Amino acid sequence: MRVLGVDPGLTRCGVGVVEGAPGRPLRLVAVDVIRTSSQLELGERLLAIESVLEKWIVEHAPDSVAVERVFSQHNVRTVMGTAQASGIAALVAARRGLPVATHTPSEVKAAVSGNGRADKEQVAFMVMRLLRLAGKPTPADASDALALAICQVWRGGAASRLAAAAAKNGARR
Amino acid sequence: MRVLGVDPGLTRCGVGVVEGAPGRPLRLVAVDVIRTSSQLELGERLLAIESVLEKWIVEHAPDSVAVERVFSQHNVRTVMGTAQASGIAALVAARRGLPVATHTPSEVKAAVSGNGRADKEQVAFMVMRLLRLAGKPTPADASDALALAICQVWRGGAASRLAAAAAKNGARR
């Protein structure tokens, strides 16, 4: 299973592709951060994000897209931009017929570190370990995008197995 | 000047096109509400909104797009969807090279009724009056989209005149 993780944001939008399956080693396919200038109009920033996400989906052919679920934060202006960037990720995925999964930050932290309250450092450390990288991915947005993708590989896999088991069970009745 | 007003929302997204200029009568070109089912995935809903907005821009050829500026509200889930739908409007406008103006709800209310705290009824009444309609546009999302477009025709016009005057003044120096 190949997952494109997106840590949404207007100024920095983390993107990371991870390949793997539950119980098997994970592999880093690609990671980057899409940056857009705050000098640009909102629409231009969203267009730039859309264009890079389209390119990544074509180039890396993920099976699904995982996006961080946005919550209200202290800074209302930031959360609006985050919501808008996450909407673009959902739009691009839907256009390509890809399923989109959303995970909360604590689900992602728990998935990669076993602790839903892990800090950024710990998440970056575990991403490095799990993907057997030489160093921690930076900036945090890149690391978070990879953690999201890992979370989806594992949870998505578990969800698929549960669905398959339920289907099998249903068929037996 | 022809303006497409968008009152963003996932469940109901108001769209209205108004033609006019400051000091001249306004004309209703078109109004509707884009509805998407909450049963659909977020990406599918955003795709549907994108598709209708694209069609409206092609069909009605507005000079600019006016979108309600989203603020934090009580219901975090609603505000996320609103922000995402407004992002799609900004994206589609930018793709077509159209300027996007954002106005706060109180700016819009003040523009059409003289009162920044006017209620929905009063806004709908003034939209009906200003566009010389036989009845109030319904639902409120349709009325709000038209009010946004009217606000932009007037404020955008004033801004253009100020910019033109400033340019003229600058040229004289």
From TrEMBL, chains A, B:
<keyword id="KW-0234">DNA repair</keyword>
<dbReference type="GO" id="GO:0048476">
    <property type="term" value="C:Holliday junction resolvase complex"/>
</dbReference>
<comment type="similarity">
    <text>Belongs to the RuvC family.</text>
</comment>
<keyword id="KW-0479">Metal-binding</keyword>
<protein>
    <recommendedName>
        <fullName>Crossover junction endodeoxyribonuclease RuvC</fullName>
        <ecNumber>3.1.21.10</ecNumber>
    </recommendedName>
</protein>
<dbReference type="InterPro" id="IPR002176">
    <property type="entry name" value="X-over_junc_endoDNase_RuvC"/>
</dbReference>
<feature type="binding site">
    <location>
        <position position="7"/>
    </location>
    <ligand>
        <name>Mg(2+) 1</name>
    </ligand>
</feature>
<dbReference type="GO" id="GO:0005737">
    <property type="term" value="C:cytoplasm"/>
</dbReference>
<dbReference type="GO" id="GO:0000287">
    <property type="term" value="F:magnesium ion binding"/>
</dbReference>
<dbReference type="InterPro" id="IPR020563">
    <property type="entry name" value="X-over_junc_endoDNase_Mg_BS"/>
</dbReference>
<feature type="active site">
    <location>
        <position position="7"/>
    </location>
</feature>
<feature type="active site">
    <location>
        <position position="68"/>
    </location>
</feature>
<keyword id="KW-0255">Endonuclease</keyword>
<dbReference type="InterPro" id="IPR036397">
    <property type="entry name" value="RNaseH_sf"/>
</dbReference>
<keyword id="KW-0963">Cytoplasm</keyword>
<dbReference type="GO" id="GO:0008821">
    <property type="term" value="F:crossover junction DNA endonuclease activity"/>
</dbReference>
<dbReference type="InterPro" id="IPR012337">
    <property type="entry name" value="RNaseH-like_sf"/>
</dbReference>
<feature type="active site">
    <location>
        <position position="141"/>
    </location>
</feature>
<dbReference type="GO" id="GO:0003677">
    <property type="term" value="F:DNA binding"/>
</dbReference>
<keyword id="KW-0233">DNA recombination</keyword>
<feature type="binding site">
    <location>
        <position position="141"/>
    </location>
    <ligand>
        <name>Mg(2+) 1</name>
    </ligand>
</feature>
<feature type="binding site">
    <location>
        <position position="68"/>
    </location>
    <ligand>
        <name>Mg(2+) 2</name>
    </ligand>
</feature>
<keyword id="KW-0378">Hydrolase</keyword>
<comment type="function">
    <text>The RuvA-RuvB-RuvC complex processes Holliday junction (HJ) DNA during genetic recombination and DNA repair. Endonuclease that resolves HJ intermediates. Cleaves cruciform DNA by making single-stranded nicks across the HJ at symmetrical positions within the homologous arms, yielding a 5'-phosphate and a 3'-hydroxyl group; requires a central core of homology in the junction. The consensus cleavage sequence is 5'-(A/T)TT(C/G)-3'. Cleavage occurs on the 3'-side of the TT dinucleotide at the point of strand exchange.</text>
</comment>
<comment type="subunit">
    <text>Homodimer which binds Holliday junction (HJ) DNA. The HJ becomes 2-fold symmetrical on binding to RuvC with unstacked arms; it has a different conformation from HJ DNA in complex with RuvA. In the full resolvosome a probable DNA-RuvA(4)-RuvB(12)-RuvC(2) complex forms which resolves the HJ.</text>
</comment>
<dbReference type="GO" id="GO:0006281">
    <property type="term" value="P:DNA repair"/>
</dbReference>
<keyword id="KW-0238">DNA-binding</keyword>
<keyword id="KW-0460">Magnesium</keyword>
<dbReference type="GO" id="GO:0006310">
    <property type="term" value="P:DNA recombination"/>
</dbReference>
<keyword id="KW-0227">DNA damage</keyword>
<keyword id="KW-0540">Nuclease</keyword>
<dbReference type="Pfam" id="PF02075">
    <property type="entry name" value="RuvC"/>
</dbReference>
